[in-house]
Design goal:
Two copies of one chain form a homodimer. With 196 residues, chain A is of the alpha+beta class. Helix content of chain A is 23%, strand content 45%. In chain A, the strands form three sheets. The first copy, chain A, has a four-stranded mixed β-sheet, with helices on both faces. Chain A has a three-stranded antiparallel β-sheet with strand order 1-2-3, with no helix packed on it.
């Protein structure tokens, strides 16, 4: 198969803030059709963490989401600089949002494309266990977060039932569930997850 | 818990094309902190379909993604008008991209938020079975698509291994896998999925 590519003939900057920038391209599609393409560039990676504690519980973060005007329960998540290792951002985010650090980390997935027809946002997800309190990163002053400790099995139920609507949380919980069921996780972690 | 809300003090239209529009708001965060918020509004729902045929195979669509400059294998997906039932859009998309129609449909999930810190894009996913050829919807002239028939179990493997990077495809395959493993799918569909 010959790969037919997109061509960008010209690009115009449209908008820029701390989190995103928008560029409009004049393009030729792989079919040969001319057109325009508005691309949303994200200045951060999306980083998610699924922590599992000694009693098989994880942490959900609750917050009002501005763009939907509704309350959302999600795994600890946040933005990580594009030029830093995703794991380092995950460690910071787990401390900031949940007040925890972890001895053990396992990447659930990386470079997942959250909305690849329009945006270049990439997501990384991690499992974290061997947890201990950690206050080395202050809370983000723009965030008003609720923190809830929930058994892992209950979070799987919430993901499957539609109570969790955040796509990254959903993909992380379902992938962890797949790995647990297929015996692909380290034994110590699998033992913790089955306590919850 | 008292819900603390975001306040939008003023809004400025920034950009508009066929697929998205951008609005910048002056806001007060739930913490009381003032700031700006750039919101990406999507003019379509994200619609995904996981079709299963009589031999337990599904369909993957391959295409060059402009924003990443790379080739991506995904489930059949496309945009559905906000004011139309998602199932109707799924039927059209399955015909356009895979040349198929289905006797049976099951919603895998709805209203999943693909990137809720910045965009209001919502995703719906469907399982489809009882398939037959259908050419009632012409291909989209701006799309250069490859179509590949793949056993369902192989698509699960590709999702878990990271060969499929599209977030919506990933969430759909992993949720279908969960429902199959927990006996939550109609028996006729589960039988088909276990043939692949």
């Amino acid at each position: 198969m010959t790969r037919k590519l997109w061509t960008s003939l010209a690009r115009r900057p449209i908008y820029d803030n701390r989190w995103i920038s928008i560029t409009e391209h004049d393009i030729v599609a792989p079919t040969g059709a001319p057109g325009i393409y508005g691309v949303v560039h994200y200045k951060n990676l999306a980083i998610g963490i699924l922590p599992i504690d000694e009693e098989g519980c994880t942490i959900l973060i609750g917050q009002e989401r501005f763009v939907f005007g509704s309350y959302s329960w999600e795994l600890p998540e946040g933005g990580g600089p594009l030029d830093q290792p995703p794991l380092k951002s995950a460690e910071r985010e787990l401390s900031e949002e949940a007040g925890l650090k972890a001895d053990n980390w396992l990447e659930l997935f990386g470079k997942v494309q959250l909305s690849n027809s329009v945006s270049d946002e990439e997501a990384f997800g991690f499992l974290a266990w061997g947890l201990a309190p950690d206050q080395s990163h202050a809370k983000d002053p723009s965030e008003e977060l609720a923190v809830r400790r929930v058994p892992y099995a209950e979070v799987v139920r919430m993901a499957v039932s539609g109570e969790i609507l955040d796509g990254l949380s959903l993909a992380m919980v379902l992938k962890a569930d797949h790995l647990l069921r297929t015996g692909a996780l380290p034994e110590a972690l699998a033992d913790l997850m089955q306590r919850g």
